Amino acid sequence: MNAPVGIFTSTPAGRFLSVNPALSGMLGYDSPVELLDSVKDIATQVYADPREREELLHQLETRSQVKDFECRLVQKDGTKIWASKNVWVVGDEKVRVR
Fold first, then answer.
1. Mind listing the domains of the chain with CATH numbers?
2. What angle do CA 20, 23, 26 make, to 5 degrees?
3. What is the pLDDT of residues 42-63, one digit of tens each?
4. Global pTM?
Protein backbone atom coordinates (compact mmCIF):
# COMPACT_ATOMS: atom_id res chain seq x y z
CA MET A 1 0.00 0.00 0.00
CA ASN A 2 2.93 2.38 0.51
CA ALA A 3 4.58 1.86 -2.88
CA PRO A 4 5.50 5.09 -4.69
CA VAL A 5 3.90 3.79 -7.94
CA GLY A 6 0.28 3.14 -8.77
CA ILE A 7 -0.78 -0.45 -8.14
CA PHE A 8 -4.19 -1.94 -8.80
CA THR A 9 -6.17 -5.09 -9.43
CA SER A 10 -9.16 -5.09 -11.74
CA THR A 11 -11.64 -7.38 -13.40
CA PRO A 12 -11.45 -8.08 -17.13
CA ALA A 13 -14.81 -6.30 -17.41
CA GLY A 14 -13.21 -3.06 -16.23
CA ARG A 15 -13.94 -2.67 -12.56
CA PHE A 16 -11.20 -1.90 -10.00
CA LEU A 17 -10.97 -4.43 -7.16
CA SER A 18 -8.22 -2.61 -5.27
CA VAL A 19 -6.02 0.46 -5.72
CA ASN A 20 -3.19 1.86 -3.66
CA PRO A 21 -2.88 5.48 -2.44
CA ALA A 22 -0.30 6.33 -5.12
CA LEU A 23 -2.73 5.44 -7.91
CA SER A 24 -5.65 7.29 -6.36
CA GLY A 25 -3.44 10.37 -5.90
CA MET A 26 -2.08 10.10 -9.45
CA LEU A 27 -5.64 10.14 -10.75
CA GLY A 28 -6.65 13.05 -8.51
CA TYR A 29 -8.78 11.20 -5.97
CA ASP A 30 -8.46 11.88 -2.25
CA SER A 31 -8.28 8.20 -1.31
CA PRO A 32 -8.42 4.69 -2.71
CA VAL A 33 -11.97 4.39 -1.38
CA GLU A 34 -13.08 7.46 -3.34
CA LEU A 35 -11.55 6.04 -6.53
CA LEU A 36 -13.14 2.62 -6.00
CA ASP A 37 -16.53 4.21 -5.30
CA SER A 38 -16.34 6.61 -8.26
CA VAL A 39 -14.99 4.51 -11.12
CA LYS A 40 -17.46 1.95 -12.43
CA ASP A 41 -15.88 1.48 -15.88
CA ILE A 42 -12.11 1.80 -16.25
CA ALA A 43 -12.20 2.03 -20.06
CA THR A 44 -14.48 5.06 -20.19
CA GLN A 45 -13.62 6.77 -16.92
CA VAL A 46 -9.85 6.27 -16.62
CA TYR A 47 -8.53 5.88 -20.17
CA ALA A 48 -8.46 9.01 -22.34
CA ASP A 49 -9.08 6.68 -25.29
CA PRO A 50 -11.01 3.49 -24.39
CA ARG A 51 -9.41 1.79 -27.41
CA GLU A 52 -6.11 1.79 -25.49
CA ARG A 53 -7.64 -0.47 -22.83
CA GLU A 54 -8.97 -2.72 -25.60
CA GLU A 55 -5.46 -2.91 -27.06
CA LEU A 56 -4.03 -3.79 -23.64
CA LEU A 57 -6.62 -6.54 -23.19
CA HIS A 58 -5.85 -7.84 -26.67
CA GLN A 59 -2.15 -8.04 -25.82
CA LEU A 60 -2.96 -9.83 -22.54
CA GLU A 61 -4.96 -12.43 -24.46
CA THR A 62 -1.87 -13.48 -26.41
CA ARG A 63 0.58 -13.32 -23.53
CA SER A 64 0.07 -13.15 -19.79
CA GLN A 65 2.26 -10.07 -19.24
CA VAL A 66 2.64 -6.70 -20.96
CA LYS A 67 5.52 -4.37 -20.13
CA ASP A 68 5.91 -0.64 -20.79
CA PHE A 69 2.40 -0.15 -22.22
CA GLU A 70 2.06 3.61 -22.74
CA CYS A 71 -1.36 5.21 -22.63
CA ARG A 72 -3.14 8.39 -21.61
CA LEU A 73 -5.28 8.41 -18.50
CA VAL A 74 -7.84 10.93 -17.29
CA GLN A 75 -7.65 12.42 -13.82
CA LYS A 76 -10.77 13.16 -11.77
CA ASP A 77 -10.74 16.80 -12.95
CA GLY A 78 -10.43 15.79 -16.62
CA THR A 79 -6.70 16.46 -16.98
CA LYS A 80 -5.01 13.90 -19.24
CA ILE A 81 -1.72 12.34 -18.16
CA TRP A 82 0.64 9.81 -19.72
CA ALA A 83 1.27 6.51 -17.98
CA SER A 84 3.47 3.51 -18.58
CA LYS A 85 2.00 0.24 -17.34
CA ASN A 86 3.37 -3.18 -16.54
CA VAL A 87 0.37 -5.52 -16.38
CA TRP A 88 -0.05 -9.25 -15.90
CA VAL A 89 -2.88 -11.72 -15.58
CA VAL A 90 -3.38 -13.23 -12.13
CA GLY A 91 -5.25 -16.50 -11.68
CA ASP A 92 -5.26 -20.11 -12.71
CA GLU A 93 -5.03 -21.44 -16.27
CA LYS A 94 -8.78 -20.97 -16.77
CA VAL A 95 -8.74 -17.19 -16.25
CA ARG A 96 -10.07 -15.35 -19.30
CA VAL A 97 -8.99 -11.81 -20.07
CA ARG A 98 -12.40 -10.93 -21.54
1. 8-88 (3.30.450.20)
2. 150
3. 999 999 999 999 999 999 988 8
4. 0.87
